[in-house]
Design goal:
binds S-adenosylmethionine, three-stranded antiparallel β-sheet, globular, alpha/beta, Arc Repressor Mutant, subunit A, Rossmann fold
């Protein structure tokens, strides 16, 4: 017998692989989406490099620009407006820009004008809270390259970043100043966003006289804490090649060193986006060094993803939900790509490493951000 079989009135594949024609087509649409998932991030990277969100934002948050007005602002004598049109059309379809067709005042003809959407408002690099440095770092050729090695990591193990770039990420950054800047700027951009959310919800800095930010990058997070609590002496502790590039920040001392060897002393330790970079064994080593650096009455304040976090008040829950609910597991894959054994953790996994690291008691405080706060105490 040949020809398609019928089920519920629609044709289905003869081998019954798909349940229905509808399912087959729906599946094909999803498969195309997966095939070209990179198109959106790279098209966004293009308009960010061209500075298009900034051009529109400079005219006002609700302003619009025509293609010719955008082209006239590009640093090019004869930009390819046809190519630009195609990129903008795609990004309008993706909701990154909005488009409206209006009658042009000068020519009297209809023209398309482009405006910002809530998404592209985050891609304005001239604003203090911007996701541009993160977008550029995550879409740099060297940070995307490790993703191409996942299959080898599954089969043979190893570190994806090292397979792609010949060294693990921190020593690569130490040897490549441009990558070091790219990475540190991306961290600082996230620190600005997260610290705003954190300081609005977390009160745990009140009783401190000193605070050490372990793996603090160029010091953005601890500077924000000290700005909010000027009586705290802030120490920003990171690898020497990172603190060497940090600018002077009021109330913050930069200290270079290796957290696997020692951690400077303070009333409390702050660690944002550190533990997720490391395996359980490495986290326990870091936590033990933190324990040595604080008094019995001290604490560590960890800012990281808790995969199953579902605490906080209703507003926090709503705000957290508004972020992609899969973002935590996306970041877990970012850890496969960029870290040497790191992962995102559930509360149960956090509890295990905290206990082993010398912190028997903890609270999780949810904040309106991807990460949560874990405040852990030695006793
Ligand atoms: C993911 S970044 C987080 C930076 C910062 N805490 C933030 O969230 O913006 C991890 C940081 O850990 C630092 N780091 C890596 N290995 C380290 C070590 N052995 N000792 C101290 N810092 C280290 C890196 O240089 C980097 O700045």
């Amino acid at each position: 017998m040949s020809g398609p079989a019928m089920k519920n009135g629609s044709e289905i594949c003869r081998d019954g692989f798909f349940e229905s024609e509808e399912e087959e087509l729906q599946g094909q649409a999803e498969a195309w989406k997966s095939t070209f998932a990179f198109a959106e991030s790279l098209a966004v990277k293009c308009v960010v490099l061209l500075g298009i969100p900034d051009m529109i934002a400079r005219e006002g948050p609700r302003a619009t620009l025509s293609l010719n007005e955008i082209a006239a602002r590009l640093p090019a004598d004869s930009p390819d407006t046809s190519c630009l049109f195609r990129i903008m059309r795609f990004l309008v379809a993706k909701g990154v820009f909005r488009a409206s067709v209006v009658k042009s005042a000068e020519a009297g003809a209809f023209e398309t004008r482009y405006g910002l959407t809530p998404a592209s408002k985050w891609f304005v690099k001239e604003r203090e809270l911007s996701m541009v440095p993160m977008l550029l770092m995550q879409n740099d050729e060297r940070t995307v390259a490790p993703w191409h090695h996942f299959n080898e990591c599954v089969v043979d193990g190893g570190i994806a970043f090292e397979r792609a770039n010949g060294a693990e990420i921190w020593s690569y950054a130490s040897d490549h100043p441009d990558f070091n800047h790219l990475f540190n700027d991306a961290m600082a951009c996230n620190a600005r966003i997260v610290m705003k959310a954190l300081l609005s919800k977390f009160q745990g800095f009140q009783s401190l006289n000193s605070l050490v930010d372990v793996g603090g990058g160029t010091g953005t997070a601890v500077a924000e804490i000290v700005r909010a609590y000027p009586f705290i002496k802030g120490i920003n502790y990171d690898l020497p090649h990172v603190v060497a590039t940090a600018r002077r920040l009021p109330g913050v001392e930069h200290v270079g060193g290796d957290m696997f060897e020692t951690v400077p002393s303070g009333d409390a330790i702050f660690m944002k986006w550190i533990m997720h970079d490391w395996s359980d064994e490495d986290c326990i080593k870091i936590l033990k060094n933190c324990r040595k650096a604080i008094p019995d009455t001290g604490k560590v304040i960890i800012v990281d993803v808790v995969l199953d976090a579902n605490q906080g008040d209703d507003i926090v829950k709503k705000k957290k939900k508004a972020l992609d609910p899969n973002l935590g597991i996306v970041f877990d894959l970012v850890m496969v790509a960029h870290s040497s054994g790191g992962k995102e953790r559930t509360e149960k996994e956090w509890k295990t490493i905290l206990l082993e690291g010398g912190f028997g008691r903890y609270n999780i405080i949810d904040i309106p951000a991807l990460q949560s706060v874990i405040e852990a105490f030695p006793r």
